[in-house]
Amino acid sequence: MLNAKLKTVLLKVLNAKLKPILLVEDDIVDAMTVKRALKELKVQNELVHTTDGKRALEYLRTPGNAKPCVIFLDLNMPEMNGVEFLQIIKAKGILKEIPVVILAASSEEKNIVGTFHLGVAGYIFKPVDAKKLDEFKPVKMYWTVEQRRVQRRHYNRRQGRQDK
């Protein structure tokens, strides 16, 4: 039987606020389509929307902003396109660990191949709908479980305990 303190800790970990999803998309209609698809799938994560790679980097580098569990990334954007954004976040550091899913027009197929060496998790062709996003559901479940595992490990380290 779990003691009360351990039970409280486990409940806090299991009920921890989910990390946000970062949508980097300059087209308002495409962004609305992604939002609608996430809503249809009853995804409870907060959706943070930026319109280009430069603004997405600003969000990711701002202290106090939660790091997203996944980034949905358009390739063709003003200011900083998706490939430039990927090259920066996948270079080093904690941002490198965030899974990135490319949102691509079918005409960008050749660009998609070039993004895999930068460590993308996958791609979805536009227009995005609930069915296409639902294909990533097993991955979403993994991210949620992994996020909680990392939180538990962090808590244990703060308490001076070994990871299990």
Topology readout:
Layout: H1 4-14, E1 21-24, H2 28-40, E2 47-50, H3 53-61, E3 70-74, H4 82-89, E4 100-104, H5 109-116, E5 122-125, H6 130-134, H7 137-158
Parallel strand pairs: 1-2, 1-3, 3-4, 4-5
Helix pairs in contact: 3-4
Helix tally equals: 7
Within the CATH hierarchy, at the fold level, what is the topology?
A: Rossmann fold
CATH architecture: 3-Layer(aba) Sandwich
Question: How many beta-strand segments?
Answer: 5
Structural class, by secondary structure, is: alpha/beta
Mean pLDDT: 75
Q: Low-confidence spans: pLDDT under 50, at least 5 residues?
A: 9-16, 138-147
Q: Which bin fits the share of residues in helices?
A: 40-55%
Compute the separation of the termini in Å: 18 Å
As a percent range, the share of strand residues is 5-15%
- Tell me about the biggest sheet? 5 strands, parallel
Structure, explained:
This protein has 164 residues and is α/β, with parallel strands linked by helices. It has one domain (20-148): Rossmann fold (3-Layer(aba) Sandwich). The protein has seven helices and five strands. It has helices spanning 4-14, 28-40, 53-61, 82-89, 109-116, 130-134, 137-158; strands spanning 21-24, 47-50, 70-74, 100-104, 122-125. Strands 2-1-3-4-5 form a five-stranded parallel beta sheet, with helices on both faces. The radius of gyration is 17 Å and the shape is globular. The chain starts with a helix and ends in a 6-residue tail after the last helix. Mean pLDDT is 75; it is low at 9-16 and 138-147.
